[in-house]
Amino acid sequence: MSIQTEIVRFMTLDALKIANNHAVENDLNRSIEPSRINSLSEDNVYPISMTVPTSYNTDSDHLRCRVILSNEIIETPMGKDSDGAWLDVPFDFYMNKTLSAEL
Length: 103
Description:
Blueprint: E1 7-11, H1 13-25, H2 34-38, E2 46-54, E3 62-76, E4 79-90, H3 91-97, E5 99-102
Antiparallel strand pairs: 1-2, 1-5, 2-3, 3-4
């Protein structure tokens, strides 16, 4: 029997703030309301549950990342979902500034 492992990437609050500031300053399509980020705890890490490649007219490609912001389940127009947000981050930031853990 083989055991399958999975790598999960996540951000610290500092990395999340840096990535979000980049998205806001560069007018990217997905950013998180700064007041929402300011309400988050430095004691937590924020998992990235999904990524989708996307491109802008910039020097680098980006990933659209679904970042989980709490362990709450919320009602959305599409049904129940995790409490998270989409954030566009440069690919090199994703590869070099996010952390990973093997599950």
